[in-house]
Amino acid sequence: IHNYYFRLKNVDLSIDGHFILKNIAFEIGINERVFILGNNGSGKTSLIEVLLDNIKAEGEILRQEPPKEQIGLLFDQVPFSPLYRVKEVIKLYALLFHLEESAYRPLLEQLALPLILEKKIGKLSTGERKRLGLFTALFHKPKLLLLDEPLSGIDPNSIQQINDLIFATQRTVIIASHDWGTAQKYADKIVFLHQGILLGGAARSPDYWLSDNIIPFVEKVVIKVDSLVDCAQLKSFVPLLFEYDSQYILFGFDERLLEWLHKEKITYWRASKSLHDVYYYLITKK
């Protein structure tokens, strides 16, 4: 009996000679929550497709996943015909899995789907389509859940409720996402992808990524790039500086820097180190 669902080693994926994934190696254990984080075009969705064997990749991929009726799946683009009504999609899935309405009615209510049962798929908002997609991924209580951007388009007031539905049950969850905060809160392992490359060389816990192993400082100073500040001068104050999202991120600062910023009337703010910081720092180091 294996204690993992997926084990990847030296996995490469290329299309028309262009690398999509390169030298990917990590393991997803049973009942682990694994987040695949990265910018657009980093290869997150392709990696999900490789795990599912929807796309053939080179390298060693060992799969021990449960039967397909125990797998829940949601891609960012929910593939429903625009001509069907919400109630028809729900009935179709219920018939496919031989479930009575009483078995999935609570989930319908939690996702507020009874309010839109008569609406055609083509008339749904992005959030409504995503909630219907989450229903089809969750209603049969899968042991393995693979989700691609499950919270995109969801009303911010509903995000915690959706997370409760995803993570309340003990199961294996694999999520491709931009949601750094949710990953930090719920992940057992985080995979950082950038241009198809596994940053840091492994899947690791949020605590590891946020420890001194990567960036040996806890607090940062953030300055907008358009603040007319000399980057070279900033570097004279700190041992670690890099740039992303039109911001300078400074680690290892002391009162000398703060006094200088006050003197020069440069706007800045202080914050704790984040997963986003670690991701971009690793990009600068790769």
Output the keywords:
30% helix, 286 residues, alpha/beta, globular, 13 strands, single chain, 6-stranded mixed β-sheet
Strand order of the largest sheet: 5-6-7-3-8-9
* Principal-axes shape call: globular
Rg calculated over all Cα atoms: 22 Å
Multimer state? single chain
The chain-level structural class is alpha/beta
- How many distinct beta strands? 13
What is the residue-averaged pLDDT?
A: 93
Content of β-strand: 25-35%
Q: Can you count the helices?
A: 10
Q: Assign a percent range to the helix content.
A: 25-40%
Describe the structure.
By secondary structure, the protein is an alpha/beta fold. The chain is about 30% helix and about 25% strand. It has helices spanning about 45-50, 85-95, 100-110, 125-140, 160-165, 180-185, 205-210, 230-235, 255-265, 275-285; strands spanning about 5-15, 20-30, 35, 60-65, 70-75, 145-150, 170-175, 190-195, 195-200, 220-225, 240-245, 245-250, 270. A 6-stranded mixed beta sheet has the order 5-6-7-3-8-9, sandwiched between helices. The chain has a 4-stranded antiparallel beta sheet with strand order 11-12-10-13. A 3-stranded antiparallel beta sheet has the order 2-1-4, with helices on one face. The longest helix is centred in the middle third of the chain and has 13 residues, at about 125-140.
